[in-house]
Specification:
Layout: H1 2-12, H2 20-25, H3 30-40, E1 41-50, E2 57-60, H4 61-73, E3 78-89, E4 92-102, E5 110-121, E6 124-131, H5 134-140
């Protein structure tokens, strides 16, 4: 079952050249995104942002899942994500990413190393925890880097 979880999470990851800002701001794509969220996420799913030194910020439900992405992408002119590894952790999958973003068009991209822990229940995403630290993400699933 856990390899199946890895594949479910892999399907949700955008290609390395997909501009997530353009995707989430595209009114024509809004219906497709809503269908994708309903297909891949539990209606009561949680998305949690873990920022250093603060309490986690929790978004709930399908609308919360869409909102977390819109909130995260709001300050960016462009944003893309490159998967470096997917780690099978049973009912959870750790996704190690290198993200690239521009705050303004024409300026150089900044790169960020991050991770997420996706929890799968009944072949759907029940929870997604996003970390700015890979160490914290790996510790969350009982793995040491």
């Amino acid at each position: 079952m856990s390899q199946e979880n890895v594949e479910i999470v892999r399907l949700l990851q955008p290609g390395a050249d997909v501009d997530l800002v353009a995707l989430f701001r595209d009114d024509d794509a809004a219906g497709d995104l809503a269908k994708m969220f309903a297909s891949f996420f539990h209606p009561d799913c949680e998305c949690v942002l873990h920022y250093p030194g603060t309490e986690p910020v929790i978004y709930r439900g399908l609308e919360g899942t869409r909102t977390v992405w819109r909130d995260w992408l709001a300050p960016w002119a462009s944003y893309r994500s490159n998967i470096e590894d997917l780690i099978d952790a049973g009912d959870r999958v750790v996704v190690l990413v290198r993200d690239y973003g521009r705050r303004e068009p024409g300026v150089p991209e900044v790169a960020m190393i991050a991770a997420a822990v996706w929890t799968v229940r009944e072949r759907k995403i029940a929870r997604a925890d996003f970390y700015t630290s890979r160490v914290e993400a790996l510790e969350a699933v009982g793995l040491a880097e």
